Amino acid sequence: MKERSVSDSTAGVPAMPAVSERVRALHAQMTLDEKLAQIVGYWLDQNGVVAPMQSEMAAGQKDAGQLVDVTRHGLGQYTRVYGTRPVDPAERAAWLWEEQRRLKRETRLGIPALVHEECLTGLAAWKAATFPTPLAWGASFDPELVHEMAASIGDSMRELGIHQGLAPVLDVIRDPRWGRVDECIAEDPYVVGVLGTSYVAGLQSAGVHATLKHFVGYSGSRAGRNHAPVSAGPREIADVFLPPFEMALFDGGARSVMNSYAEIDGVPLGSSAEYLTDLLRGRWGFDGVVVADYFAVAFLEVMHAIAGGRGEAAAAALVAGIDVELPTGDAYLAPLAERIRAGEFDEAFVDRAVLRALAQKEELGLLDPDAFEDEPPSEIDLDSPRHRDIARRLAEESIVLLSNDGILPLAEPDSAPSRIAVIGPNAHRAEALMGCYSFANHVLAHHPGFEIGFEIPTFLEAFEAEVGGNADVVHARGAEVEGEDRSGFDEAVASAAGADVAIVVVGDQAGLFGRGTVGEGNDSETLELPGVQRELVEAVLATGTPVVMIALTGRPYAIGWALDGERRPAAVLQTFFPGEEGAAALSGVLSGRVNPSGRLPVSLPRAAGAQPYTYLHPRLGGASDVTATDPTPVRPFGFGLSYSQVAYGGLVVDAEVTAGGSFAAAVEVANTGTRTVDEVVQLYGRDVVASVTRPVAQLLAFQRVRLAPGQSATVRFSVPTQRFAFSDRSMTRVVEPGDVEVWVGADAAATEAAGNATARSTLAVTGAVHVLTTAGPRQATAEVEASAVASDAASESAGAEVYSGGAGVR
Questions:
Q1: Residue 170: exposure state from Cβ atoms within 10 A (0-12, 13-18, ≥19)
Q2: Residue 89: its pLDDT value, please?
Q3: What domain of life is recorded for the organism (predicted)?
Q4: For residue 721, which of 28, 277, 574, 743 sits 20 to 30 Å off, Cα-Cα?
């Protein structure tokens, strides 16, 4: 990508994108109807509700028997041919190959359709592997593993003839009450950008285009309400919401972007040329395709009321820079054609979009003469051993140990329980392990007669397999995820009273638009656990039996009572929808087979009334003696315990660096425990004085490091000063000269006094103010130099079933 001019501002005529001669020649042959057909999708046999206002917007939808009429002028995209209802993958692939051949054979220009699908937690299709939700990616702090996951998803999609994936979500979490938090990666823009970029690179390595969403500001909605207005100022947009998109475009090479449903200061993003054209294409030089979020073009009329009809909405979206209307052509077909033929809209804007859409098809090989001449796959494994191995490792790395008084791991030889009660609404439900955009919760919920289609043991099943015959496991549901029914409390209490340990699995059910407790449209007024789940935990605690609480959720809840209350569980684990291998991963952590290494990608809130909150707050955003409310989270961003002990020391930071350059920081980390540990080393910094207020702590870099017992390592970071960049008073992104403090901490709130951070070093940023360009480095790099491991320690491995280690320590 390169910065370039995108429009002729004097004439008001859009500049045409640079395309190949083949694309230009194809476009020159097109009638208006054929052009419009190339910039819309068609949603075949849609059923159920998987998009906002879908039932209202689907009027006039035609069935598969009318495809010849629907596609008589060609077709831009097929919407979710695998992901709308449960279809056998091989049978659907055979249909799709024949349909593409028909389009080549029977339409005048012979252009195949691009096929897009959702792929946020894996390909959203029946029988396809389901990976941990993006919030769990954030908890892993492992970009390499996210890249590996995305590449495996992309391989499955390409095998099925899918060309574009509607992921990743790069919205920065601002308010955990928002229902779509489980689709997001973190509250830190840098973590979102690094992991999101890894996902893009992985997916596109398989030849599938990634789509960045939702551009931009969507997660900043008022009170965490879906589709609510966004009141973010331009500095917050520039410094918080935009950086992940910039990283994914420049460092990941993303080829598609989807607009946000939001309106910022009264302007819907679907009609914003300032963002979709001036910024995205003008300043950033993006030359890919912008697609509409489902029904977003029509929403300019029916939800935002800035257009008087579908044709007017289409004109506003096209001028702004939305190239392709999804999921169908509600606005870009007949309503837009009518305006053009009446002389009310310039067809040049259609030409601009068509050229981009055709260039994308060319890039994906759809314009090649031999496209779809091969045979479709006859045997397809969408949940292969490779998929499951990646899902297992990512789930294991994402589990966060929040507290532990010594009860964990349960497999300690001197204290292993012989009778264990497994209680709670999420203890024996496979659906509880999967996010909102998993096929099971997104689509299959509308088809109760179908099995999930792949192996996904519940926590109870996985835990029974983990302990084998070494413990007697009893189960009681106790309560549902939602509702006020307490009739199961007595059974749960009796089960706990007769056990040595009670494991209570609470949390969410992901779903959409009122079906479930978290997910798209399932926003919350409170951050208390849904239903009567807190009461259930407290009833079990009252038995006196030691309790391990597992929060299996899609958002962080206000569970300070379980962490710091007078009567609290002996241990608390947080996991964010860990996918098909999540139950086995949790069981491994409980037994000690897995040493927990996840870190909170979002602050654990004290109360709903303290929201919105982010650890990236200026001094006035924290606790103070001039207000009676305390926004301090009960566990900070980056927090997580393990079964071992890690010591930090010897931080060395360059004394000075020129603004615009990079500085070095090195730290010693040592495993002083008896257990192999994966430590997430976190480098933080802050501006001492700046021209606008800056955060009291900001993550500059992070690196996972595996250390055997007794092993130490030196982690050397190279950090571009761009990590300290911000928008100054003139709204120019700059790095200012001056002193900055740098330290390594176990989390965002770690201090040297508490023993979980290094002493702070002062770094002088020298020279003139550095103005950022898109060419500057955006990511820090790290090198790890580990010491040799003594032979007796080397025999200990992360897979040991029984070990002796510290409780609730790093």
A1: buried
A2: 97
A3: Bacteria
A4: 277
Cis-peptide into 168, omega within 30 deg: yes
Q: What is the mean pLDDT of residues 190-209?
A: 98
Strands 781-786 and 267-268: unpaired
Q: What is the percentage of the chain residues whose pLDDT exceeds 70?
A: 94
* Residues 545-552, mean pLDDT to the nearest whole number: 98
pLDDT > 90? residue 382: yes
Alpha-carbon dihedral angle through residues 92, 95, 98, 100, given to the nearest 10 degrees: -60
Q: Report the interhelical angle of 348-363 vs 310-320 (nearest 10°).
A: 60
3-state class of 230 per DSSP? strand
Report the candidate in 775, 663, 667 with the shortest Cα–Cα distance to residue 723: 663
Give the number of other Cβ atoms within 10 Å of residue 32's Cβ. Answer: 14
Residue among 610, 522, 549 at smallest CA distance from 227: 522
Instruction: Name the 3-class secondary structure at 449.
Output: coil
| CB-CB contact of 666 with 762 (8 Å) | no
| pLDDT higher than 70, residue 637 | yes
Distance in angstroms (rounded) separating the CA atoms of residues 582 and 136: 10
What is the Cα–Cα distance from 21 to 27, expressed in whole angstroms?
10
In which band, very low, low, confident or very high, does the pLDDT at 10 lie, cut at 50, 70 and 90?
very low
- Provide the 3-class DSSP secondary structure of residue 321: coil
State the average pLDDT for the chain: 93
What is the percent of the chain where pLDDT is above 90?
A: 88
Please indicate whether residue 788 or residue 171 has the higher confidence score (pLDDT): 171
Number of H helices, E strands in the chain: 23, 29
**Distance between CA atoms of residues 741 and 761, nearest Å:** 6
CA 744 to chain centre: 26
Q: In this structure, are residues 45 and 96 in contact, taking their beta carbons and an 8 Å threshold? A: no
The percent helix, strand, coil of the chain (3-state, each to 5) is: 30, 20, 50
CB crowding 457-479: b at 16 or more within 10 Å, else e: bbbbbbbbebbeeebebbbbbbb
What pLDDT, on the 0 to 100 scale, is given for residue 796? 43
Question: Which positions ≥6 away from 419 have C-beta within 8 Å?
Answer: 471, 472, 474, 498, 499, 500
DSSP, collapsed to helix, strand or coil, labels residue 302 as helix
Environment class of residue 538 by beta-carbon count within 10 Å: exposed (0-12), middle (13-18) or buried (19+)?
Answer: middle
How far is the C-alpha of 242 from the C-alpha of 247, rounded, in Å? 9
pLDDT in tens, 729-754: 999 999 999 999 999 999 999 999 98
For 150, the enclosing helix (H) or strand (E) is helix 143-159
Residue 466 is classified by DSSP as: H
- What are the tokens at 318? 């096209």
| Full DSSP string of 342-384 | TTSS-THHHHHHHHHHHHHHHHTTTTSTTTT-SPPPSS--SS-
d(CA 41, CA 382): 25
- When pLDDT is cut at 50, 70 and 90, the band that residue 806 belongs to is very low
Residues 140 and 418: their CA atoms lie apart, in Å, by 32
pLDDT digits (tens, 9 = 90+) for 575-629: 999 999 999 999 999 999 999 999 999 999 999 988 999 999 999 998 888 888 8
pLDDT tens digits for range 411-461: 876 668 899 999 999 999 999 999 999 999 999 999 998 999 999 999 999
Q: Report the C-alpha gap between 266 and 282 in whole angstroms.
A: 23
C-alpha distances in angstroms, 630 versus 186, 192, 605? 22, 27, 10
H-assigned helices in 178-237: 189-204, 234-236
Query: What residue ranges in 508-587 does DSSP mark as E strands?
Result: 547-553, 571-576
Q: Which residue has the higher pLDDT, 470 or 387?
A: 387
In what helix (H) or strand (E) does residue 389 lie, and over which residues does it extend? helix 385-398
**Mean predicted confidence (pLDDT) in 186-198:** 98
